Amino acid sequence: MEAPxxxxxxxxxxxxxxxxKEWRAIPExxxxxxxxxxxxxxxxxxxxxxxxxxxxxxxxxxxxxxxxDADDAESNGDILQQKLQEIMRQREELQQMEIELQARAxxxxxxxxxxxxxxxxxxxxxxxxxxxxxxxxEREQSILELERKLEEKDRxxxxxxxDTEAHxxxxxxxxxxxxxxxxxxxxxxRVQEMDALQSSTNQSLQAELRERTEQFNQYWIGFQRQFVExxxxxxxxxxxxxxxxxxxxxxxxxxxxxxxxxxxxSTDSSSYNGNQINVIDGGKSNGHLGFAxxxxxxxxxxxxxxxxxxxxxxxxxxVPVVP
Length: 323
Prior knowledge:
Elements: E1 21-27, H1 28-33, E2 49-57, E3 60-67, H2 71-75, H3 77-252, H4 255-281, H5 299-315
Helix pairs in contact: 3-4, 3-5
Region (Disordered): 1-21, 254-323
Coiled coil: 70-163
Keywords: Coiled coil
């Protein structure tokens, strides 16, 4: 665009084009020959000098020229110098502003990159956080499952402890019963030994008793036989003496004595019959002799019996009596 001609040739530039604004003073011939070349110097006193304003975007550059007459140059040199200094100051400010804007743009791009990377990292972190939450939930579920299994194991362990205690008590009871059984078996063995000893002793005693009983029975039978023989001999002697006595009494004619003798004969015969019955029984029913009922005859007959039978007793075999 074109700036108004005059000494104060400051051209305002919009704020959107402040980053590409620059003031230059170039000679006319250089402006004609090389429009794209940049020279930054001012030559006062030359007839052909221009102050241009370059506004460019990319490779396109627009130039605005201000024509200054040579006659006015000397009078307006100081003003131009001041304007130029002001322009230079503005240029520096604009350059500083451009640098700041570039820095801001760079910073903004970096901030955008950082923000993008942060967003990417945030998304990654959110995904990781979601994964971690899911893993944490799974871990919590697994922990709950493990706690449940641990409780079950604790219950099983308590049950096993109770069973073990019951088994221990049962084992102790069994051991105690076994000990009692061994004691009972030993006691039974001792009792059996005592029974066997007693039975053997009883058998030996019974055998000895049978032997002694047989011996006693034999001795008793022999004694009874001897006694029967002696009694029979005595009866024969008594009968003979009675006959002799009867003959003697017949000679004397004593009737009373004859009746008395007959009575004694009947008594002796009954006593003899009792002795015979006792011998046949073997002495089992009564140990006393049957003739004890007729223990004595009259004094004469008993004296004769003892005197006449003394010879027979001397010849009888001796019989030992076992207590």
